Structures
1.
Amino acid sequence: MKVHTYEKAFLVAGAAVLIVCMAALAYAAVALGIQLPGRVAEVDPRRLATTAPFDHPGVRQTGPASYAAVVVGRVWSFDPPTIVVPRDADVTFVGTSADVLHGFHVGDTRVNVMLIPGQVTRVTHRFHEPGEYLLLCHEYCGLGHHTMAGKVVVR
Ligand code: CUA
């Protein structure tokens, strides 16, 4: 069987790309410790009303310059709809969903995650500029998806 020169070159290039990508994946997982969320952050979506911290959504201070903003997404709103946090502090958004998959994007920031029923999502951000930031659901979650918004107020 004769393999054309170009065909052979493409096969070698394809295999090389695969090897490089697998090596990058292994490096990220082993050396950098980047992992998918584990079972440590699971929550029963049917029992949010009686499960801390989701039984009391809202902002609480967790340190001298750190805050936790607990958020529950449900069709089609965020609870609480307005999150007030101070500037120049570490704000950790702790979120989950009570029903279906929702998006959680804070405008003009890199906070862009999913609220997943059964999983706890954590993302930390430090706001430097005071103002109002639009909070949007960016995952289609049903008829009222386009109305699902809130805001983050930085003081
Ligand atoms: Cu919630 Cu789209």
2.
Amino acid sequence: MIVPIKQIISKAKQKKYAVGAFNTSNLEITLAIVRAAAKMRSPVIVQTSESAIKYSNLETLFGMITNIANTVGKKVPIAIHLDHGKNMSVVKDCINIGYNSVHMDASEKDYATNVRMSRQAAQLGHRKKIWVQAELGSILGKEGMVKLETGEINMKDLMTDPYQAQDFVEKTKVDTLAVSVGTIHGSFKGVERVDHRLLKKIASLVNIPLVLHGGSGLNTGTFKKSIKNGISVINIDTNLRLAFKKALKNSIKESEDLIDPRKILNPSTEAMQKEVEKMIKIFGSQNKA
Ligand code: G3H
Ligand code: ZN
């Protein structure tokens, strides 16, 4: 059931586990996420990017997620969140329609502009008791990316500066902070990038819950250590896309005569549900509903 996100994230921070924030853009992904949360008795965050909103439209997506959360997921706490809102208008639209949380991502702007936009978003959100996430430092890549196209980049230049993070949170009054500690959006074999020393330092200076973006492809040990070192929310998108595609390929290959979209897509929905269940177990949010 939809609840204020504060209830979900504050408990995770206090009890030292992480809540998964999973991206959706359609019915099948939403069902997979909420069914997994219900089965595992876990809190969960269902999030939509700007491009998901463009694909399905805000009213449809918001209505579908809240309906599924309040029926299929009625026994577990669920929050709906805007992921990577790059401009103020989408942030305002999501606040107005009733999201529980919005991500004002002005991380590509200069520091002063990021502070100004994040503070403005926080003020708008707080009037409606909505939490606001901001981002400091750059998280490269793109959800769904499986090959690194960035060449040799100096990640150090893009990572969150701990002292700047402290100043940023004081000035903006945001509720959660997306940090750049080495992860990249997408899933890349053999890439283990979390800088745990940096993460620990940020967590020691910043009191609000920290969010790890680009969670797909990380191994269990990295997740657990990141949670131990201060992460309370972990964003996952590409892992679900990969599970969807793999199951869809098999489904079409094995039953070429199927023409009912529900039957063709059912194995993909089940595969995504399993993936969410796996993440919930690793993040430690099982039985925390
Ligand atoms: O904002 C969404 C995420 O950070 C997802 O990243 O595709 O690497 O799981 P991912
Ligand atoms: Zn992200």
3.
Amino acid sequence: MDKATGWQPLAALLATAARVVAFTGAGISTESGIPDFRSPGGVWTRYDPRDFTFAKYVASAEVRARAWRMRREFWQADPQPNAAHRALADLEAAGRLRGVVTQNIDGLHQAAGSTTVVELHGTSRQVMCIGHAPRVGTPDGCGFRSGYRWAFDHIDDGETDPRCPQCGGIVKSATVSFGQNLFPGVLDAAAALLGDADLVLAVGSSLQVYPAAGLPASAAATGTPLAIINDEATPLDALASLVVRGRAGAVLPPAVAAVACRTAPQQ
Ligand code: NAD
């Protein structure tokens, strides 16, 4: 494993790849002002994610009201894609990146222009009906979905716990909470994308949240080169071909710019 701090070794590795797949985590969005779990002063210092398990959300209207307050705080800042999101979109536009598998729920890859994005943990840009009494971490709704503003509009009209307009079920952000199963097919879609990659770029993830972190781990274990761009050590560093210790917004843009206008290697 090579350990580096600058972008040049990453550019050299990118130059060898034609089917890059990025695997991203909360760290790629911190430079958009969205805190990861450890950012000082971030939303997670005011809200404990363990309070928002799927079971607690289903059981308590008070938890749901608090969860909507947390979501509103998240969107009030109007987060925008940063240079790292845009660099991955540029790499896709250059025909060198097949897609992004993200743990993030902020939709910033799509906002930056990425078109193939697998959202392992869903999206907070939408809300969905999860049914009246879903059990064992699995939503059981009627199919109602809407943009997140639907919930805020109802809350502004005085409802603290807006219910599904179609069936009266519980409405939740279309994200995967603690204690909630991943949405059907998502892990398979991510594994298929990563299985066809000739380079996996893990960006801004502590690589500690499973089953998500199992995806880059399996890719590396089956011989796909893995590059990790993160500002601290991760448990997968020893499996990686390259570890770049730095900020995603500083490392990715120059590395992508160095290869984006060059012809990709033969596939
Ligand atoms: P994590 O918080 O466990 O790890 C983030 C990693 O990124 C850390 O190792 C941190 O040191 C590093 N980092 C922070 N800023 C960085 C930067 N600018 N450049 C490079 N590295 C940086 O995040 P995770 O691995 O994604 O797992 C946490 C879970 O929390 C995920 O399930 C995710 O869905 C969720 N989450 C999502 C968001 C979001 O959608 N933006 C925000 C917070 C948490």
4.
Amino acid sequence: MNILTFETNEELNQVGANIIASLVQTNPYSVLGLATGSTPIGIYQELIRQYQNGLVSFKHVTSFNLDEYVGLPEGHQESYRTFMNNQLFNHIDIPMEQTHVPNGNAEDLHAECLSYDEMMSTSKQVDMQLLGLGHNGHIGFNEPDDTLNGGTHLVELKEQTREANARFFNSIDEVPTQAITMGVGTILKAKMIILVVRGKDKASIVKRALQGPITTDCPASLLQTHSNVVVLLDKEAAGELQ
Ligand code: GLP
């Protein structure tokens, strides 16, 4: 695990975007695993800038997003599909049909999970999976539990997660109670993982995830078992690391 700490957000965004851009420059047919939340936005903005400056093209890239809320109407501002379109896809040259986000409005959600896994297994292996980190150690929407799921599955969101995400909605009542998420098994299959964490409020969970015991109680701690993880931290998030 390669842990890098940055003085400024700009430097962190630049390095995160450069790793992704160089993958795509080396292999234009890369498969990217993408994440939502506030954490990756600066990296996406830097990728858009590099695209606009002609440094990288996403024409042949395929993407798979980690997760999606269940039950938000199509086009809802806080659906992860809308987020990805607004924050990245609408500003680069990736064809929309090469982008994948689980469908949280599928009539049969279990069938949707199976078909998402099916699509991922028929595609090439994910070259890079981008991850943020929840305050309780979740990755994607894999919440702490006695056991974790390997593949894409339906989850009941923890109250803590709904509270953390309520800042994006008018009130907590509007935050969905369920989501579809890739499983930890799927995430760990990626050739490379970039975990990005910012802020003092995540310093203690960063320590647990990176230097604590490997436990399903902190899903991100399973990243310690992967051989190619780059962790990008601002100095606040790195504050409790030894
Ligand atoms: C959300 C997402 C995660 C994200 C995390 C942190 O619930 N499902 O993929 O990493 O919470 O979000 P943020 O980056 O806004 O702190």
